[in-house]
Amino acid sequence: MCKLEWFRRRRKSTSKSRTVFANQGPACLMNDGEEMEHFCSNAIISARYTWLNFVPKNLFEQFHNMANIFFATITVPYAFAEAATSVWSNLGPLIAILAMTMIKDGIEDILRHRRDRKVNHRLVQTLKVNAAGTTLEWVVKRAMDLRVGDVICCERDQSFPCDLVVLASSNTSTEINVTTMNLDGESNIKRYYAVSSTQPAYLKLAPDRFHKSLTNGSHPLQKLIKSLYVRVECEQPNADLTKFEGRLSTKYVQDIPLNASNVALRGAKLRNTDVMLGMVVYTGEETKLSLNGKKSARKYTTRESKSNVILLSFIVSMVSLAVILTIVFTLWTRKTKNTIWYVPTSPQTSWQFIQNLFRFVFILNYLIPISIVITIELQQLMLAFLISQDMKMYLESEDLCAKANSSQLADELGQVEFLFSDKTGTLTRNAMRLCLCGILESEKVYTFRPLSATASSTSTDVCAFETGWDQESNSSQSDASDSFRNKSTRQTNRQWLIPDANDTLLEEFLTTSALCHTLDVANSEIAGEYKSGRNEISLRQIPIYEASSPDEKALVEGAAQNGVVFVGVEPVEDSISTKRYKIEYRNDGSTNDNAAEQKNYLVDAVLEFTSERKRMTVMVRYPDGTFHIHSKGAESTMLTPEVTTSGGLRTQAIKYVTDFAVEGYRTLVFSSRQLEEAEYRKLLTDLHKASGLVGSERATAMQNAYAAIEANLSPKFVTAVEDQLQPGVKECLKNLREAGIQVWILTGDKEETAITVSQAAGHFTQQMSLLRLTHCPDFETAACMVFEQLEGCGGEPIGLVIDGKTLGFMLQPSLREAFLDLCMNVTTVLCCRMTPLQKASIVQLVQFGLSVNSIGGGGPPVTAAVGDGGNDVAMILQASVGVGIYGKEGLEAARAADYSIPQFRHLTRLFLLHGHWSYHRISFTMNLFYFKCTALVTTQIMLNFYGGFSQTVSYSSLMFALFNLTMTSVTCLLYGIFEQHLPENALLARPYLYRLISQQANLKLWYVMIWIVEGVWHGIITFIMTFFALGGGFYAPASFYDNGLSSRATYDLYFLGTANFIFLWISVSVRILTLSRCINTGVLIGYGITLLNFVLFYPDQPAAFVGLFLSPAFWFTLLLTVVMANMPGLIWRILSDAWWTVQIKLSKISSKRMRQKLLRSFRVWVSAIIWGDRDLTTSDIKEDE
């Protein structure tokens, strides 16, 4: 790095602010002493390697594996001692494995580079002014080439490629509408504003007006360019999404204050605004979205950590055995040197002792499975492919399927202990729906079906709201929304009514809903694009609404579905505040009736929602000349005695609110009153006078005016709105809980919304009491609350609710441990109003806070995170396993995640099926490697025991290499790809079975030791049968003779060694076959391919092979050896099948004590052995349901 660049970065890191000039100055307009600073690139990089660092970085990652470190180290002693085997028997396989893994990782990273390229090469219109200020034009740049200071143009529905200061908007009010769901999870539209001082100059240069401005003689080029000078001084990049401080200066105005409402952030989308011009202020890794994320890095699984521990134990055991054998050899030579002529009589030196130690290490190093790494890597690739090809995780309506972006974490899917889930777009579909309306005067409750359920069957009219529901309902009957299905049943029981077109009170409610809101109607071009994109032909359609509140949008859409359609707003001449609301009344609630009647209502004032008032109000003049005030809001403010005039209606409203809330709906209360014209005019005049004041006087006057307008209202209606859950969410959460996975919801949404969705999804049950740690003003208050709650935690189910502000205090070092203890003592946790970085902090808190107390051996718990937006990327990267859902606002989460799925419900198959299978396959593959390597080394230990510990081997170096590379690894690989120890229907119907493999159950010490003991058994049996049954004992003449050989012919060491090798190979292969429960054509072909190894090592010992294959003794001993060696494995297989059968039967018993009692029952085990069946029939599953 050059000194100048280093100095610039150093200055940037120490300065508290940065200065940015629009259009890079230009130089001709910059004042003396002003110069452009240099900032980071706007390139987005999720790839892990570059062409320069790929080889060293990949090798560094591969040598995190203990086996690779060992085999690289073991090659060094070959230079100091003459070995019985060649150095290439170790070095050759190591190089092959490193190369294959490197190729696999390289291909994966190339795919990441391609995904990055797609984002970075997005084309952006950029305003270009040359340094001399003589030319002005719009050019197209790639997003990665944008620099701080560039002025770019964004059009409707485009996402912002970087953080921008808004300079101009196509709206004359300087307002732009933006959705930030990709940042904070909120789906509502937010309002941002262009700087009023830059709006006129830059709006003239918008691409659609550019040519006209340049050809207009009243705007000479030099004057236009001079008006483009903008200097922004702002804070250095930070991760706070809600904070921005700076000031803007032009040639004419100085130090205009800037705040967060003037900045559009990367990841957000422009809505309901045709064009926006903005100046780039933060790029690339300095954008707020990137600062709230984490850089992609290779994830190391708990299985890898466990494997390293096991391999380290093997290495320690190997060295210990080598030391023991060397000492025994030294003692043996001292004892026998005078009786055996070929034993050296000279004293052994220290260096000779070390050389003997090395020779034993060379023999025993085959205890370490060198090919285990590449075998598991290949298994992971195949398992990732099988996940991606699972058609039951395919969403036909959106043409989306599951995808494995990482091939290294398949087994970790079967070990998840904590799941951290986003809410908006992950649990919900981002589609509010009006479900119920209680009319207080008539005491009637109407239930509103989706449009597809109420519209005429011959209608071709489809709106956006209808389409989303129809796609869901038509795809599969089981895909219907859980909440709608369950609630519709209860609605029938309560005898709630279908809307009646002749009910004037219902029409009054629909009219009020169409008037009392602040939403806008998307223009006709956008609506036309939406409809034509679905090949729909319609005479009249419900408009597409853009709303800052999803509840408001649901109410207006609900009114439109039932024939009262808000079609737009028009300004009123000679009036600044009054707007004309156009409403169509369509006969019988039809959405395509050409005979609709349109009425115009004059809205004179809109009192927007505030968190203090918790309501919004409109003052409306009706077409019939009457004057009305309509208000809607939370029952806590709408039904107070000070506001409400009717006690009876208030009581009825409270009843409806309670009933609807029990059903899990979001409730709102509508109140109205009709006024005389004089009173109406007086209230409106007072409001206008108050708005003209300034300072504290204005605030007081506005508060009084609002109170007067919203006083003496009469409750009219109570509504119930549902934030529709994605299909299968409740069942999926239930299955995950039964599987022992703790689910925490982390969302940036509001507290009440988050609680409502949690209750609807079943995350919070009706029996659960809520513990709220919200709105803590300072650290001391937060500390008092957490310690008080720790003392009072009992055995009842408790749901903890905490907001982002309070969480900031809880994550302080002095409170972190206490807060985690509290989380572990409650049933479940909901975190709301969280920033993306706080989501990652919660995941990190659980990972590191529980690592010491983890049951599985001292490591951190396995965590998973699931989300659909850019605000979830940080926690997805932090978690052990990241799962992305294809989001409506972008694919950042799906690209960054290890696995991508179409919907939340697919987690059931991903974890409980693929995760369970994958962990079982890989963990058993590891145990098979430990087993076969132990068996191989045992034969050589036995040989040395009978051979005077002389560091002799009975196999050639090629045989040693092939045994671990191709002769037995292929069968282990096939087992790890196809094995299904339990059928699919059993795993999905019995989520409890997931618990049985959690916390590395198959790699616990006692279980691994069983496999090692079985390996010792195989090694001893194959050796004894070779040297005593076939060889006659102590190299005596064979007990069985070949035809044509004299009685003096004997088998030499190589004959017996080759026979022993074949016995061991076939015995191990049969053991793997008896372990397999899924033997298909691929497995059988794989076993056939392993026979081709004879072609490889036949040239090494041709005489031995010919002599053995012609010997009847060889074939008889082979059969006897294989049967004897595999007898314990066969018994273990029978007991294993019985154990799983028992567990399947016990999994439907909820009582832990009863399960333990039946598990100890001899009759249960006998029944499982005799009649056991691990498959479930359809009747079994229906019985459970």
UniProtKB/TrEMBL annotation:
Record's GO cellular component terms: endoplasmic reticulum; plasma membrane
Residues forming the catalytic site: D422 (4-aspartylphosphate intermediate)
Spans traversing the lipid bilayer: 309-332, 366-387, 955-978, 1005-1033, 1053-1074, 1081-1098, 1104-1125
Keywords from the named record: ATP-binding, Magnesium, Membrane, Metal-binding, Nucleotide-binding, Translocase, Transmembrane, Transmembrane helix
Domain called P-type ATPase C-terminal: residue spans: 894-1140
Region (Disordered): 471-491
Signal peptide: none
Cell compartments where the protein resides: Membrane
SUPFAM superfamilies associated with the record: Calcium ATPase, transduction domain A, Calcium ATPase, transmembrane domain M, HAD-like, Metal cation-transporting ATPase, ATP-binding domain N
Cofactor list: Mg(2+)
InterPro entries the record matches: ATPase_P-typ_cyto_dom_N, ATPase_P-typ_P_site, ATPase_P-typ_TM_dom_sf, ATPase_P-typ_transduc_dom_A_sf, HAD-like_sf, HAD_sf, P-type_ATPase_IV, P-type_ATPase_N
Residues engaged in binding ATP: D422, K423, T424, E552, F609, K632, R666, T747, G748, D749, R833, K839, N871, D872
GO biological process, one term: phospholipid translocation
Family matches, as Gene3D superfamilies: Calcium-transporting ATPase, cytoplasmic domain N (3.40.1110.10), Calcium-transporting ATPase, cytoplasmic transduction domain A (2.70.150.10), HAD superfamily/HAD-like (3.40.50.1000)
Residues binding Mg(2+): D422, T424, D868, D872
Enzyme class: translocase
Superkingdom of this protein's organism: Eukaryota
Catalysed reaction equations from the record: ATP + H2O + phospholipidSide 1 = ADP + phosphate + phospholipidSide 2
Record-stated family: Belongs to the cation transport ATPase (P-type) (TC 3.A.3) family. Type IV subfamily.
NCBIfam families: ATPase-Plipid, ATPase_P-type
Protein name, as recorded: Phospholipid-transporting ATPase
Species the sequence originates in: Clonorchis sinensis
